[in-house]
Every structure is written in C-alpha cells, then in structure tokens.
Design a protein that fits this description.
This protein is mainly α and about 160 residues long. Strands 1-4 form a two-stranded antiparallel ribbon. The protein has a two-stranded antiparallel ribbon with strand order 2-3. Helix 2 (about 25-45) packs antiparallel against helix 6 and helix 3 (about 70-80) crosses helix 4. The protein contains six helices and four strands, in the order αααββββααα. Helix content is about 50%, strand content about 10%. Strand 2 and strand 3 (about 90-95) form a beta hairpin. The radius of gyration is 20 Å and the shape is elongated.
C-alpha cells in the first residue's frame, strides 16, 4: 500500500478542490478513453486467436484443445464491451467484459475465462493478461491526454 506524506496529501486535496464537483465527469471521460483503448486491443487479440475448422468437437484423452470453436470466437467478438462507470468508496471504475451467450448457448464470460485459465480439455491462452500488459502505456497515455484536453471552467 502506498503512503502519502502531508505535502502530497495537500497537493491532492488542492487538485480535487480545484475541480470541485467536476472531478467525476473528468474521471469518467478519462476512464472511458482508457477503456476504449484496451477494448480495441483486446478485440484485435481475440480476432487473432486460433480457431478450429468446425464447432463440433469430441474430446480425446491427452489432447487438450489449443484453439476455440468458431462460434465461441464469434461470441467473444460480439460480446466484448465496456461497462457503465461504477462509483464506490474507492473511487470510480469501468470494466471491459464479455457479455451474453454464443450460438452454442455458452456464456461468453465463461468461454473467455476457460480459455485464459485453461481447463482439462482446453490449453491455457493468457490472452487477456498479455493484451493488458502490452497496452498499459497506451491506456495511461490515452487517459492523461483525455484529461488534459478537457477544459475546466471556473466554479
């Protein structure tokens, strides 16, 4: 956990006071801009995932899958989205998730988690962590650029 000394707390307090009631819309716009960058990167990563030639698969012992079924991949592409901003005691946040179901009737979030972690019939492909680590700097830059471009008017 990070510790702040009195000078740092004073600077943060002064900055939040200067924003007044505008801190939440400013944070919201910055967060959504950063989430959009990550969503685009994750969408490209999902499009690049290996896919099997057909949706039908009969698992065999000792041969875990290393690819998705075409319907599962399409479900991930169609279900990828950004949630509404959520405000809690720690501040504001948005999340990127896979909503809905694919045409096979499986939850897209379950397919994504199973692929990311691996299962007894699916080799792990840590595509989410890989995408987020590779695009961290782009996300931070997008948030900072968006916040700096917002014109704050006097209270």
């Amino acid at each position: 956990m990070a510790k702040l000394n009195a000078k740092e707390l004073s600077a943060v307090d002064d900055f939040l006071d200067s924003l007044g009631v505008l801190w939440e819309p400013v944070a919201k716009q910055g967060l959504y801009e950063g989430a959009a960058v990550m969503k685009d990167a994750l969408l490209q990563e999902v499009k690049d995932l290996p896919v099997m030639s057909k949706d039908r698969y009969v698992p065999t012992v000792g041969l875990p899958l290393s690819a998705l079924r075409p319907a599962e991949k399409q479900g991930l592409i169609d279900g990828l989205g950004i949630s509404k901003m959520r405000r809690d005691k720690d501040g504001v946040s948005v999340s990127i998730s896979f909503d809905g179901y694919n045409e096979l009737g499986k939850a897209n979030s379950l397919v994504a988690r199973s692929l990311n972690k691996g299962t007894s019939v699916q080799k792990p492909n840590r595509f989410i962590r890989r995408t987020f680590k590779a695009n961290e700097n782009k996300r931070v830059k997008a948030i900072i650029d968006k916040i700096n471009s917002i014109k704050i008017q006097d209270k």
